[in-house]
Amino acid sequence: MILEKIEQLLNEVKGISASNAGEIEALRLKYLSKKGEINALMADFRNVPADQKKEVGMKLNELKQTATERINALKEQFSQEDGLNDDVDLTRSPYPISLGTRHPLTIVTNEIIDIFSRMGFILADGPEVEDDLHVFTKMNFAADHPARDMQDTFFVEQNPNDVTKNIILRSHTSSVQARVMETTEPPIRVICPGRVYRNEAITARAHCFFHQVEGLYIDKNVSFTDLKQVLLTFAREMFGADTKIRLRPSYFPFTEPSAEMDISCHICGGKGCGFCKHTGWVEILGCGMVDPNVLEQCGIDSKVYSGYAFGMGVERVTNLKYQVSDLRMFSENDVRFLKEFESAN
Ligand SMILES: [Zn+2]
User: Aminoacyl-transfer RNA synthetases class-II family profile domain: from which residue to which, for each copy (predicted)?
Assistant: First the structure.
């Protein structure tokens, strides 16, 4: 009888589990306390016949030991888990995972692309290492134009017999326009964003590389009025609905007539301030009607088609928008500067 009881308790004890400290204590009371089941069996032990005492005693010890071990193991498990929980400080701020920001030039380029995309312009891209043919010749630059000079342009490879075969770092994104015109039947409506290079000393106001967005529209009966309206829409989208524009006559080899565009100073609203040198206007881009020579050079019949082109420096537009005083800050990778644009994304 007593052996059966011991065996039954032993099986029970081997399978015990608990999900909290209260349950462990209940198990301890049930098996190991003075009034527990094992002690009750101990009390019965003296009634066991002498010839069975050895066997029953051994079993009883095994039961007590097993119960003690199991309950201690459960206690250990819970104290370890408590220990783990103690290490978690729920009042601590989360790990400082800092989210990167877009570069201000990327932000502004995307904004420009967005505005012109909504007016039907599509993106065009081309190589930064270009030949003279696409950068200068097709853009109507005379063979002795100063831009072709080593003082102004970075040369990768020079061809002493034929300047048009020189390999250079493109000095404007107009080369992309040339490539689009070569391969596309009008109507053409593209914008070409990209990096350009010029052989300039690096100062607060000049750099050996900067970024441009150029636009080109070629179709039948395109007039200067179309150009002006598109640029006015751009200026208003970029700098606010009450922005005014003015066009001043200018000269570029690839457009005729050509103009520089100013926008009303968005800091003083045109009244005049330090930023606009008290004129109320700030310069933003160059534009004009595509020179018929350029169209012909790129295989487009200038008697059938006409078009306009414009080009702006992304750094310039960014400066107007965010008043970055030193051009070098754009390429210094100073995180403090870049963080300023966190909310502009
Ligand atoms: Zn102003």
Answer: 114-340
Q: How many residues does the chain have?
A: 345
Tell me if 257 sits within 8 A of 289, measured CB to CB: yes
Spacing, Cα 200 to ligand 1 middle (Å): 28
Rounded to whole angstroms, the Cα distance separating 287 from 174 reads 12
Which residues are documented as binding site for Mg(2+)? Answer: 256
Residues with CB under 5 A from ligand 1 (ion): 265, 267-268, 273, 275-276
Regarding pTM above 0.85, the answer is no
Domain boundaries, the chain: 2-84, 105-127+171-344
Helices (H), the chain: 2-14, 21-31, 37-45, 53-87, 104-118, 132-135, 174-183, 224-239, 292-297, 314-322, 335-339
The alpha carbon of 278 and the centre of ligand 1 are apart by a number of angstroms equal to 6
Residues 300 and 258: their CA atoms lie apart, in Å, by: 20
CA distance 260 to 142: 21
Residues forming a β-bridge with 313: 212
CATH of domain 105-127+171-344: 3.30.930.10
Q: Which residues pair with 131 in a beta bridge?
A: 167
How does pLDDT run across 207-261, given as a tens digit for each residue?
A: 999 999 999 999 999 999 999 999 999 999 999 999 999 999 999 999 999 999 9
How many CB atoms lie under 10 A from the CB of residue 227?
A: 23
Unique residue bearing structure tokens 């831009």? 147
